Amino acid sequence: MGQGVLATGVLAPLWSTIGNTGSIEQAYPEELLSISAYTGGKISDGDTINADNVALVKELLDPIQYKQVAEMGRVMRMRPTTTDIMKLSPWEYIEATLRHQGQATFAPDGNVVTKEGKPWIGGNPFPSPTSALEVFAGSTLSWGRHDVSFNAVKEYDLNPDGVVAYQYQCCWVEMSPVGRVSLDPMPYLPGHEDKLRYQSVFFVTPSDVRGTSYLNIWHYDQNRYPDLYGYLPAFKRVRRFPTNQRFEPLIPGSTLYLSDAWASGDPFLTWGNYKIIHRGPMLAAVSDSWNADSPNWEHSVHGGDQNQTFWDTDVELVPETIVVEAEPTGYPRAPISKKRVWFDARTMLPLSMVSFDRRGEIYRSFDGAFSVYEKGDKKVMDGKHPYWSWTRVHAHDVQTNRVTRMEQVKEVAGGYRTEANNPDIYDRFLTRSALRRLGS
Fold first, then answer.
1. Domain 87-439 fold
2. Which H or E run includes 435?
3. What is the pLDDT of residues 355-368, one digit of tens each?
4. Gene3D superfamilies from the xrefs (predicted)?
């Protein structure tokens, strides 16, 4: 099913349907839009997926998620499938995807360009992909799907016995100098057309890591490795890190690598042997996962030996995913042999990732929850529309049983707050001089 030409949508071409109606309903049959119809009434919206009934939906979870529910006490509550496409990504990103359909191609060197040979102009370049490479290329070109993202983050790193061993507060910052869809000038930031992304992460608590910061500068050419710089307070200087640092945790206790970011944390041409291995539905937290009732947007936890391993999560039936495998062909020392990523066929958003060690054994996973930040009369605005982003993440090393939980919150120590599309963020957080300033 996954080896031939890929055409998303089952009853009708997906993005033609979205362009005409703004909804996915005419593209999929009822049994792919309702968990009750899918399971013959054995599971319905509002029900809880747990160890007693998870076998009914085993094929709708990645293998590590299934293990978490079947053996570790993770539970998931079902909610209705989201059919409004504007609830599944930033408004301007969806509009740009619709506006720019058919304008993307691959240059002779493998990079995504317009038909005129220029850098990409915004939105997903391949919303109706015909290959595994197109799926991954679109995801890599825009992670957070905003021109600028500033995420205030709390991280919790758990020992194998389920005890929280480390807690961090940090800020994750992204800026896209090409393919801009919200900020003027569009679609390119003059003088930066040869760059794909500026991305930094800096830590504000606890005191022993405060000031630690990293800056990733991505070239538009996806054959080139990003330039990675870091500021370590103990050395009081900015240091350049080697490329293979992408497969190591940035801080003690974490199970996350830079390579894991958005399941596409490396230039897509430094990976290879892309192939589609499956297409089908999945359970995922793609909507309505913002905790508006918490003043700082924090989330409750459950499961594991200490009842604090997993985020409380509402999932829904995603009618179609595209499962892609890739191998780190440009990283001979990588500790993984391949990764498998589940993409939502409606938006090409990466929902879950499982990686395998060099022996081919299941190694690590990464799964996220996403939402428009709007609930009732509460909302966080991103310009003219409510903010859309990730809300929380699990990263699980099943070979050591270490788990990292991350959540996007309103504010962290130092007064840093989540926001999007602030043009001042480049000078404040995304240069080497900014690294030094943050460290001091």
1. outer membrane lipoprotein receptor (LolB), chain A (2.50.20)
2. helix 432-439
3. 999 999 999 999 99
4. Lipoprotein localisation LolA/LolB/LppX
